[in-house]
Amino acid sequence: MDAISPTEAVDAMRDDYIEHDPAADFEHAEQIFQQDNLNFREQIADPKLAHWVNQLHPKYYNFATLFPTAKKRKARKNAKRRVILAKQVEKVFPKLLYPGEHVRFITRGTLNSFVEQYFLGLVALLINRTVFVVTDFRVLLINCDGKGRPHQMKWQIPFEELIVFKPGGMIGSTVFQARDDKKLKFSGVHRDDRKAIESVISERIETAKRAEIAFPHHRGRDPLCPICATPVMMKSNSCQECGDEFVKPIKVAMLSLLLPCLGEFYLAHRGIGLLELFGYAITLMVVMAISTSGEPNAWIVGVILLAFAHIFDAFLTNHVASKGIRSKSLAWKKP
Ligand SMILES: [Zn+2]
After folding, report:
1. How far away, in angstroms, is 183 Cα from ligand 1 center?
2. Does some domain include residue 135?
């Protein structure tokens, strides 16, 4: 897939994916698509539901899959929740979505990371919140804040690479796995969304199999460039498409080795940075107390304790920084 640019590849595959009339030109197909959306909107009988659907621009979404038929009260509640979330993410759609790519579903959850939860505790939940955007071609996973506002780190799994997708299991959990990648478990996914997303994804996997065309990608799950959203190789130093330079995890680790918390501030995880600074201050006080206790060689214990704090934090921030791609230009500023 490296030989042609993602935009060219999408141009080539577009006709095969457009269901209405494969012979029609792209602009025409796009017009039909938007007209279907407008028809869908007009046929909504419940004015409150229509109010929510009206908030979304018909060019980005597939209304029929985003708002599946449900009982009145449920339909309203689900529509409201999905629309509020979609509005938070919508501003990144112009660079994120390829021409002819529409959002079929959107929901959110929190990635369970054993290492981080073990060492950072509940704080890990704050940095692993994720929006799932299911499009015609792929699942987009977007790191976000508590309101669903996108952070820098994003990944994609094209449907032909999605080998495991399981909603349910543990309460609120949803599992994704791409070929040659580990299982990603998310918790806190809304119950109604878990059911709805399953039917959207299985239908898309079938379509991807029939079309026999690969969406541009390197591996099963690729991180996306934070600036231009092109799929890039994991551990890349820069983007081949726009030239943006990426944050090197080793640099983040070195900052934390120098002063625990500094790496987190570099990643703009300010809350965690402050917590670590606080923890480090306490460690320093303990070390001072031990060193001045008058016991022979007590200072050695102090030095070992201090070294441990620095090295431990360097490993932890290296792990956190290695999960996805961040732009060097946004270091210190944006998470
Ligand atoms: Zn780029």
Report:
1. 26
2. yes
**What's the CA-to-centroid distance between 242 and ligand 1, angstroms?**
4
Q: Is residue 1 part of a domain?
A: no
Report CA(3)–ligand 1 centroid distance (Å). 16
Q: Which residue has the tokens 């659907």?
A: 53
Q: Ligand 1 mean position to 326 CA, how many Å?
A: 11
Residues 79 and 155 grouped into a single domain:
yes
Residues 6+ apart with CB under 8 A from 117: 124, 125
Cα–ligand 1 centroid distance for 227 (angstroms): 5
Do 217 and 259 lie in one domain? The reply is no
- Tokens 């699942």 appear where? 139
- Quote the number of domains for the chain: 2
Domain containing 282 equals 249-330
- Each of the 335 residues of the chain gets a pLDDT tens digit; together they read 444 455 555 555 555 555 544 555 677 778 888 899 999 999 999 999 999 999 999 999 999 999 998 899 999 999 999 999 999 999 999 999 988 889 999 999 999 888 787 777 777 888 899 999 999 999 999 999 999 999 999 999 999 999 888 886 666 789 999 999 999 999 999 999 998 999 999 999 988 888 776 788 999 999 999 999 999 998 899 998 899 999 999 999 999 999 999 999 999 999 889 999 999 999 999 998 988 888 888 888 889 999 999 999 999 999 999 999 999 999 999 99
| 326 shares a domain with 284 | yes
* Residues whose CB falls within 8 Å of the CB of residue 325, separated by 6 or more in sequence, listed in order: 152, 153, 223, 224, 225, 226, 232, 234, 236, 246, 247
Instruction: Find the CATH number of the domain harbouring 30.
Output: 2.30.29.30
In a domain? residue 239: no
Q: Are 125 and 193 in contact (CB under 8 A)?
A: no
User: Both 139 and 17 in a single domain?
Assistant: yes
In whole angstroms, give the CA distance from residue 331 to residue 167.
Answer: 35
Distance 327 CA to ligand 1 centre (A): 9
The Å distance, Cα 224 to ligand 1 centre, comes to 8
Q: What is the Å distance from ligand 1's center to 246 Cα?
A: 10
Q: Which residues pair with 208 in a beta bridge?
A: none
